[in-house]
Each structure stands twice: as structure tokens, then as C-alpha cells.
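I am still getting used to C-alpha cells and would like to learn alongside you. To get us started, please write out a protein record for me. Once you have written the record down, we can walk along the chain together.
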Amino acid sequence: MYLKLICVAVLCGLQIDLSYGLKCYSCTQSGVDNDRKCETNPKSIQNSAINCNKKYCVIRRIEFVDQPKGPLFSFYRGCEQRPDFINTEITDSQFKTYYRACTTNLCNDGDGRTGSGSGGGINSDGSDGGGAIMVPGIGENASANMVPLAGMSLLVFIFTIKYFLC
């Protein structure tokens, strides 16, 4: 009886999903917000570091073209599987939008203006600027890596029952 309980406990322990994926900062800020912690200090926001099962930590910073040093239109930190753009800046008649993406834990902590270092990922020219480099992410489903372990656990369980209990 004790052997059966030990086998079940071991097999249950093997089923624990140890892959949490990427950690990213997640917050939003509009231009009318007086609190600028999302833009300037995401670490100070309670529960802003989240577990993300997507490939990229991202920053999207939107500034008014006529006020580059003035208030922002909006600021976003989060995680995405397929960002619209990776480390690109797009300017139209009203706004300049900075798109930043990176693939290491909590790498989306910069101001969003730079494309290297802790602001996120590689530069638009393909260089890493000495900061974080782009590497393949964890995939769409981080727990998919546990499937072979689950199959092997099932075989061990069947063998254990057949050998020890029959």
C-alpha cells in the first residue's frame, strides 16, 4: 500500500509544470495621467511584473509630434505573441510611435525611446547596441514542453502497476 502511495506521489510530482515563461512589466498610462510611474518606474507599481506565456515583452510609446519633450499621448508595457512592429519608430502628421520588443525577463523597463539596452531588444538597424539581443521566444504554449514528460510518466506508472502490484 505504501509503495502505491509513493509511486502516485512521484508521478504527480513529475506532472508539475515548471515552465512559467517570460516575465514582463505590464501597465498603461494615458497622456492626461498625472501619475507617470508606468513610463518612468514600472518596478514601483505593485504587481506590474507578470508571467507571460508569449514571446515578447513590449513597449509602445506614442508622443505628439509637435511636443516631443511634452506630455505623452499614451504609454503601454505588456507582452505579445506577435507585435505589430519590432523596434521600429513610425511618425505621421500627429504622432511619433515607438515600438519596442525584447525577449528576456523584465526587459521592457526602459523609456521606450531607445531600441537597445533595457529599453528592449535590437536596434532597427539589426545591431544589439550592447544590450539585449533578439532570440527565439518560448513559443505560443510554454506548457507544450511538458507533453513528453507526461507520456513518460504514464509509461512509468503503467510499468509500476504491472510489475509491483500484479
Summary: The domain at 19-142 is CATH 2.10.60.10 (CD59). The chain has a mean pLDDT of 73.
